Amino acid sequence: MKARRQALILSIIREKPIATQEELGEALRAEGIEVTQATLSRDIKELGLIKIPVPEGGYRYALPHERPMADVLRRAERLFEDAVVGVDYTENLVIIKTLSGAANGVADVLDDLEWPEVVGILAGDDTILMVVRRREQTEEIVERLYRFRR
Questions:
Q1: Is 142 found in the same domain as 86?
Q2: What is the Cα–Cα distance from 82 to 105, expressed in whole angstroms?
Q3: Residue range(s) defining the domain that contains residue 16
């Protein structure tokens, strides 16, 4: 029952903008599933749902990876301005130096960009290693990173 309910929750939030737990509960009841507020709250937490802004104003539930790309880009710009102290590269490897403790946050936003040229990203405390798929793509990636620094 729980798996079916959670699958239905995901389907509902993909199909229509749901702003509150009450709206979500009503949508589930319309599908024949009775749920308490406590169960609904646990489901939201277990599914990792977040609230994202909608253009008309207000917020709606979404999966974390559904963040609008404009939001991801703004976050990348803020983090690069505030935390990145240097970028260097060789062959297909890009090294990004950050303030101490900031590398994981910067790496997280870089992952959210989902650049197809990037194979993977590893973060330590103040250093990020970005592996680019092909050597020929590395300079373009570095140029994009520099644009975040304005």
A1: yes
A2: 11
A3: 2-66
Could you give the dihedral angle defined by the CA atoms of residues 30, 56, 15 and 52, in that order, rounded to the nearest 10 degrees?
-100
The backbone region for 22, taken as left when phi is positive above 0, alpha when psi lies in -120 to 50, beta otherwise, is: alpha
Shared-domain flag, residues 48 and 83: no
Please write the tens of the pLDDT for every residue from 5-17: 888 898 899 888 9
Q: Are strands 50-53 and 59-62 parallel, antiparallel or unpaired?
A: antiparallel
pLDDT in tens, 41-73: 999 988 888 998 887 888 999 887 766 777 778
> Burial level of 86, CB count in 10 A (0-12/13-18/19+)?
exposed
Place of tokens 């297909």: 92
Helix ranges restricted to H, the chain = 2-15, 21-30, 37-47, 69-83, 103-113, 138-148
